[in-house]
Amino acid sequence: MTTSATTTVPYTELAATVRGDLILPGDSGYDQARAVYNAMIDKHPAAIARCRDTADVITCVRFARQHGLEIAVRGGGHNAAGFGVWDGALVIDLSLLRSTTVDPDGHTVRVDAGCTWGDIDHATVAFGMATPSGFLASTGVAGLTLGGGIGYLARRFGLTVDNLLAADVVLADGTFVTASENSHRDLFWALRGGGGNFGIVTSFTYRLHAVTGVYGGLLGYTVDRAVDVLQAYREVSADAPDRLALYAGLVTAPPAPFVPEHLRGQRVAGVIPVYFGAADEATRVLAPLLAAAPPVLDLTKPMTYREVQQLTDGLNPPGMHHYYTAEWLHGLDDQTIEEVLAAAANTPSPFSVIVLKRMGGVTGRVAADATPFWYRDAAYNLDVHAQWAPGSPPGQHIAWARAIRQAAQRDSAGGGYVNFIGGDQGHDRVRAAYGGNYARLARVKAAYDPDNFFRVNNNIPPAVPSGNGGRGDR
Ligand SMILES: Cc1cc2nc3c(=O)[nH]c(=O)nc-3n(C[C@H](O)[C@H](O)[C@H](O)COP(=O)(O)OP(=O)(O)OC[C@H]3O[C@@H](n4cnc5c(N)ncnc54)[C@H](O)[C@@H]3O)c2cc1C
Fold first, then answer.
1. Which among 30, 83, 141, 237 counts the fewest CB atoms within 10 Å?
2. Phi, psi of 80, rounded to the nearest 5 degrees
3. 322, 432, 337: which is closest to 382 by C-alpha?
4. Taking 50 as the threshold, does the pLDDT of residue 141 lie above it?
């Protein structure tokens, strides 16, 4: 692509070398290329390189090093903090890298790092298989995987990182390695939750699982019953089998035909059960929940995996402003329920939601130091997602989200989920998200990125300013 911008950095050289487009300020398409999922983010990168292949990524890294440029790395562009773009940076944009290869006999899928989870579900469901992911099709596989990855399959098959078998990575010095249990083991450990701190992943290989019968949907309750509903959710979810994912929360009922008229536009309490198994088993497993908290709206039924993955798409319209925060909880005592619900009342935006995810199952049986994902023994993830239309001042929405997290502190396990840390939450939140794994992450960072080249992220500065001697490249 030709550009009209003038700059002291010889971007024309880069444009001539890469196969993808190099988009500069003033080029048509610049504003579209710098936009990310969170419409509140308004960053102006110096250049955006839309890479076509791994060679482009290597070229960009070497060019940035040679000219002392700051870089940002964009996968799906979904991160609420907006780390996929950055003021004055060279954005290494992977969003055109979208191919997927399923090995049905080996039960694996290899995916390019620009894929979204919608791409992966599309590729694998055709073979009756899936790998654990998030719950929104437009989320990028790269950022989600590198932070851990929590979704409906987490109790059944573990986190996304528990199913990662290998990653191809361009390192800070522009070299390329494959990290797995057999190669660059320290790097492979760090990539399974340590975020974009260690290199640019160009492809991921995941283990696949057969996913056939699925039963799930939404149970709706008037908001005045929210305390009873969360108490029943707590009791029933404590004994849930691994096959059952159980989410609970507060949302605004959409004006959809399946919602009774008196609930449309109202705040409602909701429970999402997703059972991976036969319908008759599912109804047996869900009976105690329905008895303890009879819903006014029961939309549960046999579903395909793809339908389940799209259950909440309607709650996440495009073009909104977002602020995320989250906390790991050991429990959910009555006082926490009361205080969280009090803090969540009078939400300044009908689009904002709080969601409790019951953890445990396979995720909880992995050792806390097996990957950087520390809070394996947490009972719940409390995820507070403030979402509002452009034009509304952000302060009230951010304050609402923070107050809810604060209200849950009595049951806090000590930190939050790194993929739900908003941009301004400070380094202490990043450190707390890694608990006892932080020091090892900082050591791996020192071995693989001693200059903190990869720093536009939830950053883990290197433990010591050393060379590459400490790499675990066995
Ligand atoms: C509406 C919504 C729903 C969500 N749902 C879930 C969910 O169900 N489960 C869950 O676990 N999380 C969920 N998330 C959080 C999500 O995992 C993070 O926002 C994640 O960062 C998104 O990844 P991305 O590639 O789309 O983001 P990007 O903004 O592109 O990147 C995020 C971070 O990863 C780095 N990065 C991106 N690609 C690469 C790469 N190839 N190599 C190295 N570093 C890279 C970036 O530099 C940046 O620091 C959700 C977020 C939103 C906004």
1. 30
2. -65, -30
3. 337
4. yes
Which domains does the chain carry?
6-93 (3.30.43.10), 100-211 (3.30.465.10), 214-428 (3.40.462.20)
pLDDT for the residue 7: 55
**Span from the CA of 143 to the centroid of ligand 1 (angstroms):** 3
Mean pLDDT of 8-18: 97
Our answer on whether the CB atom of 37 is closer than 6 Å to any ligand 1 atom is: yes
For ligand 1, is residue 54 a contact (CB within 6 Å)?
A: no
Closest residue (by CA) to atom 50 of ligand 1?
A: 139
The mean per-residue pLDDT over the stretch 215-227 comes to: 96
Tell me how far the alpha carbon of residue 77 is from its chain's centroid. Answer: 11
Q: Which of 93, 98, 144 to mutate to test the pocket of ligand 1 (most atoms within 8 A of CB)?
A: 144
Q: How confident is the model at residue 164 (pLDDT cuts 50, 70, 90)?
A: very high
Burial (Cβ within 10 Å: 0-12, 13-18, ≥19) of residue 317: exposed
> Closest ligand 1 atom, CA of 159?
11
Which residue matches tokens 């849950």?
408
pTM over 0.85: yes
Mean of pLDDT over the chain = 94
